[in-house]
Amino acid sequence: MEKINLSQRQKKILEIVKEFGPISGEEIASRLNVSRSALRPCLTVLTMSGLLEARPRVGYTYAGKNAQSLFADYLRRFTVGEVKAVPAVVREETSVYDAIVALFVEDVGTLFVVDEEGFLQGVLSRKDLLKAAIGGSDLLRIPVAVIMTRMPHLVTVEPDLDVVSAAKKIVDYQIDALPVVRETEEGKLKVIGKITKTTLARLLAEVSG
Ligand code: ADP
């Protein structure tokens, strides 16, 4: 009679392979004092989940994947295109005042500045707008074009990029939001969405149940 339940047994197998691998299925079985056939389902699960590698005539080796890297692999399967949110956009000639209003009305932290065809021109963050607001100038008269971060200094992502790479861009460039763009043949960037810290937090919350 087996006393070990499945997950305990899987853990035990991992420990054995880590310590003695490469090791044959027979050897694992004898170390666990169970039959080779009783081990088969566990070994299948561990191999298919990438924790163990099965090499013919060599045996099982530990694939070095811990729970953390498995989670990263899982997250990496989501693309920017799948998780992107709807972007809030304004035009270059929009006043700083109206952009601040848009920030509240659209309930966002970052606005994207686009031309009449929806091509990316700039980005406005909360602090870009705050800085202009405490600068003492006439907010109704200054267009956002004066204060925005503009092309070619914008960090963007394309829809087929994985979300982990997008998250790394947000961290590396210390920004809150990335415009999701599709590049035209002339090299213009059409804004089709956004990835923000909120988008990423929502994804994390969703995949964690
Ligand atoms: P905040 O300024 O409110 O802290 P961010 O960290 O997003 O918000 O922005 C920091 C600076 O980086 C701002 O000047 C902003 O215009 C600029 N910025 C924001 N997003 C991008 C982006 N995707 N590419 C380039 N610059 C950006």
Short description:
This protein has 209 residues and is of the alpha+beta class.
Could you explain the architecture of this structure?
The longest helix has 15 residues, at 6-20. Strand 7 and strand 8 (189-196) form a beta hairpin. The chain is built from nine helices and eight strands. It has two domains: 8-65, Winged helix-like DNA-binding domain superfamily/Winged helix DNA-binding domain (Arc Repressor Mutant, subunit A), CATH 1.10.10.10; 80-208, CBS-domain. The strands form three sheets. The protein has a four-stranded mixed beta sheet. The chain has a two-stranded antiparallel sheet with strand order 1-2. Mean pLDDT is 92; it is low at 1-6. 43% of the residues lie in helices and 19% in strands. Adenosine-5'-diphosphate (ADP) binds next to strand 5, helix 7 and strand 7. Adenosine-5'-diphosphate is lined by residues 110, 123, 125-128, 149, 153-155, 174-178.
CATH class of the largest domain: Alpha Beta
How many domains? The number is 2
Average pLDDT figure: 92
What oligomeric arrangement do these chains adopt? single chain
Euclidean distance between termini CA atoms: 35 Å
Query: What is the CATH H-level superfamily of the largest domain?
Result: CBS-domain
- Low-confidence parts lasting 5 or more residues at pLDDT below 50? 1-6
How many strands?
8
Largest sheet features: 4 strands, mixed
Q: How many distinct helices?
A: 9
Q: Strand content of the residues, in percent? A: 15-25%
The run of helices and strands is HHHEEHHEHEEHEHEEH
Radius of gyration: 26 Å
Side by side, the strands of the main sheet go: 3-4-5-6
Shape: elongated
- The class by helix and strand makeup works out as alpha+beta
What is the percent of helical residues? 40-55%
